Amino acid sequence: MTTLTGHLTTALWLAGQGLPVLPLREGKGPMGNCRSCRKNACGGRPNMKTPGPCECPAPCHAWAAATTDPKILTSPAWAPAWRQAAAIAYHPGGAGVTVVDLDNADAVVWARRSLPATRTVATTRGEHWIYLGTLTSRNAVRPGVDIKSLMSYARWLGPGTGSMGPLPDVVRALAMKEPAAVRPTSRPVTAAAPVGGGVCPHRSPAYLERGIAMAEQRIEDAPDGIHRTVYRLFLAVLSVHGRCGCLTDAHIKRLFTAAQGRGESLRHCEDAWSNAVAALGM
What we know:
Radius of gyration: 19 Å
Distance between the termini: 48 Å
Number of strands: 9
């Protein structure tokens, strides 16, 4: 059995309360896939629609690895992850809740004016407002506001204060809107997907979708150095998905939207994309 570290002790307590949990590495990102799952060799979990581990025993596949099973959490396969863990995350949708992630003071002011009171948790830059009920997760639904519920994870920062209220219609309406860029622009995105022609590594569309979703999540969770983070993740996406022609302009738009949601300008996004393409010789 795994030695009970501080994070694991907390995770087991949370699991006992019905929160599906997983370890986070430094930088608030999920642990990387194990060797058996690198480059999707395991085939992934069917549809990636519900929490729980894939066929491998290690904490792979980000939010989908979240579990309430103490046998999995304390298994030897998870021991290295807990030893490296810098924080704990949970899958809100798996716990039947939605987190409205308010990333700055302006977003908190908006929430206090616009949303019904509920349980709140202080974060490093703002607050999490937690409601009973689930919906589709969306990033950048308005400046500084993300919605984390199904197919997403939120960092555990304590139980918070206040009673949890039902998910309000105003939050449901936000989740149905197109993501809002923090810095609107009057000109279209000029970055283009590489033409392709290389060997295709994608066994299914789900592999590419997961790669884009994880890049969006890591941009969202970057604590600082957003310029460097955006370039590094654009480079990573292109190196894995950019040579076969499966990457589309719609995928690029999603990555740019995530970056602009963290305050990156369109020009800086285009420069980072162009530099990544050039660095890979595409």
